[in-house]
């Protein structure tokens, strides 16, 4: 008897959770009219933060909310907003392409180049710091730069 009650409770729970969620599948419509399942399309209830993404087969499951407007979108495709009646628990959506890119050319460039505006760089090693020993490290750098600038002005 206890097994029957537990089984009945589990079945009621299963049906209750299915009624509280919406499942569906999202397809893209190609240029020739062919359809392909859309992976990673975003499915979200309008004006909420409740949403999900489609899996590799274009399938999704999203919990029901108070709103009945569902938005499905994916970059470069026209978003689709649908009103889903309360009794409906499964939908199929077909998204059409909004933008298509033309040909893209990638041109290789030599990996090394010379900058038009060189940046002054100075490398001070441990020996240079010992020669310009001061009270602290900042003064060592200041005196090294001053010595270098004085040397350049003489040239």
Could you explain the architecture of this structure?
This protein has 155 residues and is α+β, with helices and mostly antiparallel strands. Among the domains are: 22-96, Carboxypeptidase-like, regulatory domain (Immunoglobulin-like); 124-155, no CATH class. 27% of the residues lie in helices and 26% in strands. It has helices at residues 2-19, 126-131, 137-154; strands at 21-29, 35-37, 42-45, 51-53, 59-63, 69-73, 80-83, 90-96. It is elongated and about 85 Å long. The mean pLDDT is 77.
Q: Uncertain runs with pLDDT below 50, 5 residues or more?
A: none
Task: Count the DSSP helices.
Answer: 3
Q: Please give the CATH class of the domain at 22-96.
A: Mainly Beta
Question: Biggest β-sheet: count, sense, barrel?
Answer: 4 strands, mixed
Average of pLDDT? 77
How large, in whole angstroms, is the Cα Rg?
33 Å
CATH-wise, what's the superfamily of the domain at 22-96?
Answer: Carboxypeptidase-like, regulatory domain
| Straight-line N-to-C gap | 104 Å
**Overall shape:** elongated
Strand content: 25-35%
The CATH architecture of the domain at 22-96: Sandwich
Helix content range: 25-40%
Class from secondary-structure proportions: alpha+beta
């Amino acid at each position: 008897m206890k097994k029957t009650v537990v089984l009945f409770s589990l079945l009621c729970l299963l049906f209750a959770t299915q009624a509280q969620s919406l499942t569906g599948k999202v397809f893209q419509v190609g240029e020739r009219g062919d359809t392909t399942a859309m992976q990673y399309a975003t499915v979200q209830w309008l004006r909420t933060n409740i949403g999900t993404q489609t899996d590799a087969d274009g399938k999704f499951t999203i919990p029901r909310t108070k709103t009945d407007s569902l938005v499905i979108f994916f970059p470069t495709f026209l978003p689709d907003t649908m009103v889903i009646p309360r009794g409906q628990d499964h939908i199929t959506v077909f998204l059409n392409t909004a933008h298509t890119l033309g040909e893209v050319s990638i041109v290789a460039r030599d990996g090394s180049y010379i900058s038009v505006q060189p940046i002054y760089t100075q490398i001070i090693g441990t020996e240079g710091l010992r020669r310009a020993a001061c009270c602290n490290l900042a003064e060592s750098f200041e005196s090294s730069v001053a010595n270098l600038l004085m040397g350049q002005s003489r040239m």
